[in-house]
Sequence to fold (178 residues):
Amino acid sequence: MDMIFFDNIDKLGRIVLTTVMVYVLIVTVTKISGKRSTSQLNNFDWIVTVMIGSLGASTILLKDIPFVEGVSSILVLYLLQFAVTKYASVSPQFSNFILSEPRIVFYQGQFLPDAMRDERLTRQEIECAMRSEGINSFDDVEAIVFESDAKLTVIPKPSQADDQSASSNVSETINPLM
Fold:
């Protein structure tokens, strides 16, 4: 019962020192790896981020994991993430394999129940996305897309005052998802 608040000074010192070193490592490598590491996360990026956090915590708290081994595993994950995302950027087939496809869940005034059920989305979540874009009427929405990063993108209907090119831009972004 006496070890609840404090075990020994050596263990505490190791945890503090390792925490500082792991923190500096993760901040530095995240900065070097670029915006991808901290942007809206798709499933793949989220999994890598959780793994890095878990490895960092294990390296800090578990005395059986030397700092160099923890650092090595974190760096390997960053390198794998870089390699996978680099390859995905040049290979559409690989990108489709590791990233989820965007999906239309609302189109021209109609909720798409099959798509919503498959993506486990509720009507309230879709309406929330509309409200956050300042849209109050279903009639003002061309489509709502559930993106790869789990964000809902609201595509408003082009207004009558807009020229024909605005209308064709909406079609170009929606057509590949149909």
The mean pLDDT is 84. Strands lie at 103-107, 110-111, 141-146, 152-156.
